[in-house]
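User: I'm new to structure prediction. If I give you an amino acid sequence, what do you actually give back? Let's try with this one:
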Amino acid sequence: MNRDGKMIGIFGSVEDPRSHINRLHDLGDILLIGIISVICEAETWKQMAEFAKSKENFLKKFLNLKNGLPSEDTINRVFSSIDSDQFESCFMDWANSISELGKGQVIAIDGKTLRGAKSSGKNHPSK
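Assistant: Good question. You get back a string of structure tokens that encode the predicted 3D arrangement of the chain. For your 127 residues, that looks like this:
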């Protein structure tokens, strides 16, 4: 995905609540770091920042990161201050854009089904 990728375009409509002097990092970069790290099982702001640090070379391929990686405090402040309804709407638009599912179907993004946590038929170990 390049800087003009679909995900960046969709989340570009989230309003940035920060003052102009507090915009060291692009809002889109912070949002995408958060989303990608959660998909990869990060659960805390610290884990999001650690994930970004461990994948910095990869992230630089499609994020601006003009001032480096955001800290866990920055990630926390940004996600705590954005309009959650607006973010949710953008997230749903993005999820719908990558799928061809019918209305009411669900995309599992936490990996539990892939790891076998979902019971499926008589071959499931708990049966």
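You can read the tokens as a compact description of the fold. Here is one thing that stands out. The longest helix spans residues 84-97.
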